[in-house]
């Protein structure tokens, strides 16, 4: 007959195992607390301003350099689009926006002056990529019925890029209390939004429709 362990020895074992469990859980809690403290101090450390650390002003300046580079490239890229554009209203819209782009370059120069910095562009791969894509679209579609639609397609990518960047930059200027700079950036932003709106109206008003005529003819020939 198997002997049952006594109740006394059972309770000693339970107490020992409870003791081990509670020691283990307090060790875990201590190590968790230590990890939390270490994490907190690391994050405080990383937020602490240091002379070598980049600031929001640096980001504003970086973005302005990007846009100064971008506007100059856009200004140089537009004539090719204008030459290829067929619809007179599209040609006119692009010519007007090229003139605005020229004035935006001057506005950015004023902004640099207000910051006490020399106007200087910084190579921006994002606008380079958008404009390169526009070039290759022009090669592929420039002599097709969808040529004007392709030009708007490319130009709207540029406008949306500009809108997102100027939107962020004007918010940085506002945050930094640079009201005059914010107003300049707001003025440019309004022009970019208006240019995008005009392109939208042209695309949806007539240009996409005209470009789709050939698709409709092909469809009816197939049926
Ligand atoms: Fe622009
Ligand atoms: Fe623009």
TrEMBL record:
Pfam families assigned to the protein according to its UniProt record, in alphabetical order: DUF892 (PF05974)
Disordered as annotated region, ranges: 1-57
Protein's UniProt name: DUF892 family protein
SUPFAM superfamilies: Ferritin-like
Coiled-coil blocks: none
Matches recorded under CDD domains: YciF
InterPro entries named among the record's database cross-references: DUF892_YciF-like, Ferritin-like, Ferritin-like_SF, YciF
């Amino acid at each position: 007959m198997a002997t049952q362990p006594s109740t006394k020895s059972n309770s000693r074992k339970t107490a020992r195992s409870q003791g081990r469990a509670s020691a283990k859980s307090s060790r875990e809690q201590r190590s968790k607390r230590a990890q939390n403290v270490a994490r907190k101090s690391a994050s405080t450390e990383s937020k602490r301003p240091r002379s070598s650390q980049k600031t929001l002003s640096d980001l504003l300046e970086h973005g302005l350099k990007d846009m100064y580079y971008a506007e100059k490239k856009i200004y140089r890229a537009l004539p090719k689009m204008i030459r290829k554009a067929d619809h007179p209203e599209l040609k006119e819209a692009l010519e007007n926006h090229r003139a605005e782009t020229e004035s935006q370059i001057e506005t950015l120069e004023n902004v640099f002056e207000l910051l006490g910095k020399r106007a200087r562009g910084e190579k921006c791969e994002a606008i380079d990529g958008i404009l390169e894509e526009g070039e290759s679209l022009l090669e592929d579609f420039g002599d097709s019925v969808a040529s004007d639609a392709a030009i708007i397609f490319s130009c709207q990518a540029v406008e949306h890029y500009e809108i997102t960047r100027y939107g962020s930059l004007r918010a940085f200027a506002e945050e930094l209390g640079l009201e005059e700079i914010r107003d300049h950036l707001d003025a440019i932003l309004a022009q970019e939004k208006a240019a995008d709106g005009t392109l939208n109206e042209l695309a949806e008003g007539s240009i996409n429709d005209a470009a789709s005529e050939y698709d409709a003819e092909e469809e009816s020939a197939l049926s």
